[in-house]
Amino acid sequence: MFILLLRFTETDFVLRFFMRKNLIKLIFLSIFFTITSHANFIDTKWKVSNVVGETWFSKSENIIRKHQEFYKGFSEGVFYSCDYAGQSATYNVYDLKEFLLNKEFNLFKKFSYELKLIDTKTYVHRITCNGNNNKTRKVFYPFITQKGSNTGYYLFEGAIFVLKY
Asked: In what order do the strands lie in the sheet containing 159-164?
């Protein structure tokens, strides 16, 4: 009969100890990164349904009932277009009170009743297109969505355009 004797040195013990510690850290990190916040859904075809406020130069009748579409690196619509030319998107999350207190969004506070904003997470999206050269760079900002809503809002000139999908 063959008997195998294993001897553990102090170095082996230290290696096993640190491997266990790192395993616990790895499990913790994997749980932490699965509980992350994601922006509200924007990749779809939106239809401009209404305008609140006063447009400065554009005619709202030329914009209402038109579409704005986003799909991964492609966008096309009445406000903004990017034909797979380096489109990227970022967002900030606010609760409704914090959003309305932000001076940048005073118009939303002024028209909050007409816009029927709901008291939930509010996402402020910034969508950019690098373009093929300096002349074709564009920014679509601010595009506002709210958790659990199929309505988006775009501040353009002196008005807020309401979009739905």
From this structure: 82-83, 74-77, 67-71, 45-53, 159-164, 151-156, 138-146, 122-129, 87-94
Write down the domain spans for the chain: 45-164
Q: Is 134 helix (H, G, I), strand (E, B) or coil?
A: helix
Q: How far apart are CA 94 and CA 102, in angstroms?
A: 10
Q: 144 pLDDT exceeds 60?
A: yes
In the beta sheet, which residues pair with residue 89?
A: 127
Q: Nearest CA to 143 among 125, 117, 161?
A: 125
* Cα 12 from chain centroid (whole Å): 48
The answer to whether 47 touches 154, Cβ cutoff 8 Å, is no
* pLDDT tens per residue, range 89-120: 999 999 999 999 999 999 999 999 999 999 99
**Token pair listed for 75:** 């966008």
DSSP 8-state secondary structure symbol assigned to residue 136: G
Cα separation, 102 vs 55, in Å, equals 22
- How far apart CA 63 and CA 79 sit, in angstroms, is 9
pLDDT digits (tens, 9 = 90+) for 7-63: 656 666 655 665 666 656 656 555 555 555 566 889 999 999 999 999 999 999 999
